[in-house]
Amino acid sequence: MHLSKSCLLGLVVVALGSTAALADPSAASQASSAVSAATSSVSHSAAGVQKTPLVNSQAVVGDSDDDDDDQEIEIVEPVYDPDAKPPSLLVSYATQAASWSRANIWWTLPMILAMLSFNVAYLFYALGSMHSEESVTVRAFVVRKPAAEVYESLVDFAAYPSWKPGCASVSVIEATKEGENARLVEKDLVGRQAIFEITEKVDNELLVYKTFHKNPEKLWASTEWTFEIEPREGNPDHTVVYIVTKDRVWLSIHRYAVALYGFDAKVHKLIEAFSLHHGIKKPKVFRPVEGQLVIPTEADEAREAVRYSDNDDDDEDDDDAAEADTKEAEVRKRGKSNKSSLRNRKPQRK
Q1: By the 8 A CB rule, do 252 and 125 touch?
Q2: C-beta of residue 216 within 8 angstroms of C-beta of residue 224
Q3: Are residues 146 and 275 in the same domain?
């Protein structure tokens, strides 16, 4: 607004000065002085305008001190930072998403947890579908007790809580009708109950029981335990116990959870507990090899132990020979001076 006023005043003064010069030559000097003053005012205003950048400028509007209602505009120079980098589009979107999530946390968090649970369940279902519904585990171990004593330990169901893992109590329901079998009711440490039906029982030879339910189709999983007992070959005072478990898991999610834990894990735990109950801390468990389960005799195990000990002795002899060769090589590196010093060494007096 100052610039427009100064320009207008200058033009008026120039016009008046030109008219006065034509009428009276003596007024030319006064007109020229007025023109020079107006020109200096215009140049001063223009210089102030040129120093102010017009890009990204901020304007502050305020009331003028003049008597008229004109508004004064003050132009402020912006502050530039050449090292500052503008935020990327991804960071900007992430910041906006984070702020929006914090504002709506009351329903976004449950939705995220539900989606995560669904993904985990679907993963378990897909991986569990890769396993068969039925799995069979076959193991064998040796107990240094006669077969009759081992069998009595297996059929002494009331003593199961003293050695069987996870068993808090066992009760036996005897058969009351013809065609029925006795049942075992086991309760674990948290009070869950499992019922097993004894399907086969031969003194000192065989014990078979499996999961019982009135409606087997409602079962999520079932297990059949088979214990076969026979004296060990070459030593009738020791007994070989064969354990066969048949597990069937219908739900794919449950099947994968059992696979993670191990289908044979419960068998190994029972073998360790039963062996410890008979005084064996670390039982030797035999597994099938190429579809055959072979239990070596005590003579075979003795020969195997001797063979391993001979191999260990041979390894120690080889280590001693290698150490001697190393020392001899070090002596050869020392040269003739070392040999001469050994030859010229005087015997010590007693």
Answers
A1: yes
A2: no
A3: yes
